[in-house]
Design brief:
Length: about 600
């Protein structure tokens, strides 16, 4: 029996972390300071969620050097930093090794080592901006503000360094309690692209220095220009609350809530206001202010794909403010993007227990454990999170997705129902939960419930291509509502023309109706988009066979076999390779089996 089409049924994992990030997306970063492979950061601490990554140092200089290069190329800075450090011990005057060991230590978050190596880098490269920045940040941390300004003024001359230096120098004046000089320094940033960033930090500095009127003026200016930036919204709302303007603070939070519903920081802020609790500022010292500069730059670097710069800024930020949950999660997101899942798990597990983002971090860690094949640990961890937070919609949704991925469809449907019950009045954002529950219900052969869920998802979010694809294909497979079903499938393809799975669904629907020439046309498009998918190759092989292109069919089936199909599909593919297809295919609606 031919394999049924697989409508795409999930969103990317990157999107999950992006919801958690804040940051001011206001500064364009050019590229990494140093030529070093983008690499993973690893925490040297014990954790119940830690994933072992053992390695052994070599006994020779050349061996450790080569191992460091390989580790860097594999984005493993724990190993890279260790191997470069060992190589440097054998050749301590090698300037190239000093530079590489410094960058590796910094990317790995080994700040004592990076700080100790920075002067050695500067000794032979006086204009090295990264080494100067590291020294300057360390001096700010140690409250040596005059020396910090001297270091920050010596490194290179590119536009990005000027921005970073100006902001950090301003915070060094704030540390010396010279608020006027700090604001004058900030006002040198008169480029239109940096006005919001300037006014945001000016407001934080003025507030810390006790000039509430100036802080309010700058907060208003920054907020008027940019109302959808999490850190600015949170800082402004906290400032308003501290001045007794709690209703205004609530409006600021609610404005963000309308754009991005359910963000834990916004939900936590509104709850504190409703309960009459204080909302302290999240920048309470010059260290935290300077860390906020580096966090904002690191978040922007990650969005623009400059992973090394993002790593370095975020590590320096956490050096100054190690409890910044958003910085930790943003760093974890960088490692997820670099497919360093074990390191990302360590980071998520280090989010402070009392942070509004802790539940989200725990959910993300559980999903990554599942990605690493640690299903038992993932289930136990996520179940514990749900037990402790039974009304947390993200945790419940993640548990439902985990159950669905393991074909526990009845359990998944029940879990999604719990999510829906938490929000009695559905809004557009809930289309995804109805879609997920529709999939689970269809897979457990409750088509009546599945159809109702999929229709509800479309009611909440009309023209949603994933739902159009799933419902349209299912109707075609049953021989029901064919005109409407094909309109849905064609509309889904129009909306996602580059999505091989969606195009495959349309092609396979044509196949199921016996329209084999149309099927070949669409499935060839799908194969161009997803050449390495075993299901699409299998489908195209079936379609080729029906139009008499039997040699090409054999090629596609062999390719599907070699691409690692599901265990349930492999015997069917092998049978087709050996015997071909029966003369009469089973058309849509004849078997009573639904698609999806």
């Amino acid at each position: 029996m031919p394999h049924l089409a697989r409508p795409l049924e999930s969103v990317s994992r990157g999107a999950r972390s992006r919801l958690l990030r804040g940051g001011l997306a206001l500064v364009a970063l050019a590229g990494a300071w140093c030529a070093f492979p983008e690499a993973s950061f690893a925490l040297a601490r014990e954790s119940g969620l830690s994933v072992a990554r053992p390695f052994e140092v070599g006994s020779s200089l050349s061996g450790n050097y080569l191992a460091a290069i390989v580790a860097g190329a594999e984005r493993d800075t724990l190993a890279a930093s260790t191997f470069f450090r060992e190589a440097l011990r054998d050749d301590p005057k090698n300037q190239d090794l000093v530079d590489r060991a410094f960058v590796a230590a910094l990317a790995n978050g080994n700040m004592p080592e990076a700080v100790s190596l920075a002067p050695r880098v500067v000794a032979h490269d006086k204009g090295n901006g990264l080494a100067r920045l590291t020294k300057g940040v360390d001096l700010i941390k140690n409250r040596r503000y005059v020396q910090a300004r001297a270091e920050l003024g010596k490194g290179g001359g590119d536009r990005r360094r000027d921005i970073t230096s100006t902001l950090l120098v301003a915070w060094s004046y704030a540390g010396a309690k010279d608020t006027r000089k700090a604001l004058q320094t900030l006002d040198q940033l008169n480029d239109e692209a940096f006005v919001v960033f300037r006014d945001y930090h000016g407001a934080l500095i003025a507030d810390l220095g006790g000039d509430k009127a100036e802080a309010e003026r700058r907060f208003k200016s920054a907020y008027a220009a940019e109302k959808n930036t999490l850190r600015l919204v949170d800082a402004y709302a906290r400032f308003l609350a501290s001045r007794g303007q709690r209703d205004e603070a609530r409006k600021v939070y609610q404005g963000f809530e309308e754009v991005a519903p359910g963000h834990p920081i916004i939900v936590s802020g509104i709850k504190a206001l409703d309960e009459g609790k204080p909302l302290p500022p999240f920048v309470r010292s010059p260290d935290e202010g300077a860390a906020e500069v580096l966090y904002g730059l690191g978040a922007v670097g990650g969005r623009q794909g400059d992973d090394l710069a993002s790593l370095i800024y975020l590590r320096l930020s956490l050096f100054l403010a190690p409890e910044n949950s958003l910085a930790i999660i943003t760093l974890g997101d960088v490692y997820e993007r670099m497919k360093q899942d074990a390191t990302a798990i360590d980071l998520y597990d280090s989010v402070p227990k009392d942070s509004p983002l802790r539940v989200n971090a725990d959910v993300q860690a559980a999903l990554l454990l599942e990605t690493l094949g640690k299903s038992k640990e993932a289930t136990e961890h996520l179940s514990a999170v749900v037990a402790a937070n039974p009304k947390n919609q993200e945790a419940l949704t993640a548990l439902g997705n985990l159950q669905r991925s393991r074909k526990l469809f009845s359990d998944a449907a029940a879990t999604y129902s719990r999510v829906i019950d938490l929000q009695p009045l559905p809004d557009k954002s809930q289309w995804l939960i109805y879609y997920y529950r529709g999939i689970a219900n269809e897979r457990r052969k409750d088509w009546k419930a599945a159809e109702a869920d999929l229709k509800k998802a479309l009611e909440l979010n009309p023209d949603q291509p994933l739902v159009l694809n799933y419902l349209g294909y299912s109707w075609v497979d049953q021989g029901a509502n064919l005109d409407e079903a094909f309109k849905m499938l064609r509309r889904a393809v129009d909306l996602r023309q580059r999505d091989g799975y969606v195009v495959d669904s349309l092609g396979w629907a044509y196949y199921r109706l016996g329209r084999y020439d149309d099927a070949v046309r669409e499935l060839e498009k799908a194969i161009d988009l997803k050449p390495s998918d075993p299901v699409i190759n299998d489908h195209l092989g079936d379609a080729y066979w029906r139009v008499g292109r039997k040699l090409e069919a054999q090629f596609q089936w062999n390719h599907a076999r070699d691409l690692g199909p599901d265990a349930d599909d492999l015997p069917k593919i092998l049978d087709k390779i050996k015997n071909g297809l029966k003369e009469q295919s089973e058309l849509a609606g004849e078997s009573g089996k639904t698609g999806g």
